From TrEMBL:
Molecular function, one GO term: isocitrate dehydrogenase (NAD+) activity
Assigned protein family: Belongs to the isocitrate and isopropylmalate dehydrogenases family.
Signal peptide residues on this chain, from the entry's feature table: none
Highest taxon in the source lineage: Bacteria
Co-factor(s): Mg(2+); Mn(2+)
EC number, UniProt record: 1.1.1.41
Enzyme class of the recorded protein, top EC level: oxidoreductase
Pfam families: Iso_dh
Domain Isopropylmalate dehydrogenase-like: 6-330
Keywords from the UniProt entry: Magnesium, Metal-binding, NAD, Oxidoreductase, Transit peptide
The protein, known as: Isocitrate dehydrogenase (NAD(+))
Length: 334
C-alpha cells in the first residue's frame, strides 16, 4: 500500500492559498497520499496571535520535518522581522536551493538555461543585527562565519556531484568586503579542493549579474551569501519567465521547507490569475526529497507538456488562463 506522508502545509498570504491549493491538487492527482497538517501563518493570524508565526506552526513543522509553504507578507520597515527569516533560523534551514530553468513554450530571450542558485540562508545581513545610532544613522552588521560558509559550499559541491553538474561558481564581493566576503570565498576555495572532478570558479557579484544576463546558459551551480542569493534569484527567475515559474527549497539537516521564490503578490491576490507553476514545481522538489520519484517525474512532465503546447498559459506568461484552468490542464496531462 502507498505510504501516507505527514506534511505541514502553510497556505500563507495573498496568492499563497491559490498557488499552494493548486500544488496539493496536482500532488494528490499524481497519486501521492498526504495527510496535510494545515497551519496558518502570516498577516491573517497577526490580530489573533500578535505574531505572524505562532508556536503551533513551529510545532507542526518540528513534528513532520517537511513543509510546503506559501508566501507570507512581511511588513516593510517596522514590526515583526520576517516569518521566512525566522523559520530559516529556527530550524537551521541553511541551504536555499533555487533551480532556474527554461521551459519550452515560455516566452523568454534565452534557451537552455539550467542553473541552480544555492543561497546561504542563515546569516549575512539577514542575521538581523541592526541598530540605530541616535536619530541620524543606522547600522546593519553583516555576519559571515567559517562554519556556515564551509557548510553551504559543501552543500553546493555535493549537489553538483549528485546531479552530475560540471561547475560551481562562488559569487562574492571580496574585493570590497575583504573580511566578510573574503572569508566566504576562502571557505569556498578550500572546499573546492576536496571535489577535484567539479570545476570551480569565483565571480564578483556585479560581474556575475552582467554575465548572467548575457549568457545564463554558461552557468551551472552558483553558491553565494544570503543577500546576493536573494537578489540574483529574482533576477535569474526573470531570465526564464519570471517569479511565477521559479520554485525553491529551504534545506536543513533535519527539516526542509519547500516554497516558491515569489512573495504574496498582493497586486494579483484573490483574482485566480496567479501562476501556480512555481508552487507546483516546489512540490515536485519536495516529492523528490521524500522519495516519491515517479510522481515527481510525472508532474514535471505534465507541466512541460502544458507549457509547450501553450494552451493554458497564465497572464504573467502572456496567456489568458486562470490559476484553476492551468492546474486542471496539468492534472489532465499527468
Ligand atoms: P512578489 O514576489 O510578491 O511580487 C513581485 C511581482 O511578481 C508582482 O508584480 C507579482 O504580481 C508578480 N508575481 C509574483 N508571483 C507571481 C505568480 N505566482 N504569478 C504571477 N505573478 C507573480 O514580491 P513583492 O511584491 O515585493 O512582495 C510582496 C510581499 O511578499 C512582501 O510582503 C514580501 O515581504 C513578501 N515576500 C514573501 C516571500 C516568502 O514568503 N517566501 C518571498 C518574497 C516576498
Amino acid at each position: 500500500m502507498a505510504k501516507i506522508h505527514e506534511i505541514t502545509l502553510i497556505p500563507g498570504d495573498g496568492i499563497g492559498p491559490e498557488v499552494t491549493g493548486a500544488a496539493i491538487k496536482v500532488i494528490e492527482a499524481a497519486g501521492v497520499k498526504v495527510n496535510w497538517d494545515v497551519v496558518e501563518a502570516g498577516a491573517k493570524v497577526m490580530d489573533e496571535y500578535k505574531t505572524p508565526l505562532p508556536d503551533y506552526v513551529l510545532e507542526s513543522i518540528k513534528k513532520n520535518k517537511i513543509a510546503l509553504k506559501g508566501p507570507v507578507t512581511t511588513p516593510v520597515g517596522s514590526g515583526f522581522r520576517s516569518v521566512n527569516v525566522a523559520l530559516r533560523q529556527a530550524f537551521n534551514l541553511y541551504a536555499n536551493v533555487r533551480p532556474i530553468k527554461t521551459y519550452e513554450g515560455i516566452p523568454t530571450r534565452y534557451e537552455d538555461v539550467d542553473l541552480i542558485i544555492v543561497r546561504e540562508n542563515t546569516e549575512d545581513l539577514y542575521a538581523g543585527v541592526e541598530h540605530k545610532i541616535g536619530d541620524y544613522a543606522a547600522e546593519s552588521i553583516k555576519i559571515i562565519t567559517r562554519e556556515a560558509s564551509t557548510r553551504i559550499a559543501q552543500f553546493a559541491f555535493d549537489m553538483a556531484k549528485k546531479q552530475n553538474r560540471k561547475k560551481v561558481t562562488a559569487v562574492h564581493k571580496a574585493n570590497i568586503m575583504k573580511f566578510s566576503d573574503g572569508l566566504f570565498l576562502e571557505c569556498a576555495r578550500n572546499v573546492s579542493k576536496e571535489y577535484g572532478d567539479v570545476e570551480f570558479e569565483d565571480m564578483i557579484v556585479d560581474a556575475m549579474s552582467m554575465k548572467l544576463v548575457q549568457n545564463p546558459e554558461k552557468y551551472d551551480v552558483l553558491v553565494m551569501p544570503n543577500l546576493y542569493g536573494d537578489i540574483l534569484s529574482d533576477m535569474a527567475a526573470g531570465l526564464v519567465g519570471g517569479l511565477g515559474v521559479a520554485p525553491g527549497a529551504n534545506i536543513g539537516d533535519e527539516i526542509s521547507v519547500f516554497e516558491s521564490i515569489h512573495g504574496s503578490a498582493p497586486d494579483i491576490a484573490g483574482k485566480n490569475i496567479a501562476n501556480p507553476t512555481a508552487a507546483i514545481l516546489s512540490g515536485v522538489m519536495m516529492l523528490r526529497f521524500i522519495g516519491e520519484m515517479e510522481a515527481a517525474d510525472k508532474i514535471d512532465a505534465a507541466i512541460k507538456n502544458v507549457l509547450k503546447t501553450g494552451k493554458a498559459l497564465t497572464v504573467d506568461l502572456g496567456g489568458k488562463a486562470t490559476t484553476s484552468e492551468f492546474t486542471e490542464e496539468v492534472i489532465k496531462n499527468l
